[in-house]
Amino acid sequence: MRAVAEQLDVTPMALYRHVGDKQGLLDGLVERLLGEIPEPDPGLPWRERLRELAAGIRVVARAHPDLFPLLFHRPAVTAAARRPRDTVYAALREAGLAGDDVVRAERFLSTFILGFAASEAGGRFGHLDADAEFGYAADAIARLLEKD
Predict the structure, then answer these.
(1) Which residues contact 83 (CB under 8 A, 6 or more apart)?
(2) Average pLDDT rounded to a whole number, residues 93-110
(3) Which DSSP symbol is given to 148?
């Protein structure tokens, strides 16, 4: 909290009025990161909504490569931070999944997308066409989801 206060040129006590504690600050950062992801048009087919959401996640990861890994360590606890997950749930239900399958498939998709985005932002795919690699994986995942 002291380091953040110093960067903002305020006292640490000034921060506590807004975030409560370090956990609140981290929750706020998660909310801000996830809030930058554009919400896909709900009128699009479910596959396109998922693709647009994934593209938005990749953009956020490239914009904030040092902060993005926070999403691996902190749950999305605020309503605003849960919006991308709720978007995925809705798309998966439209794809024909129900109950626990929706939750499990969302975890699978989120793990892949966040991992890919973090790897891409970190430079792991610098020698590859990341869009082509992501498209290949996204198509494979979509085929898995459609096999029901």
Answers:
(1) 34, 35, 39
(2) 94
(3) -
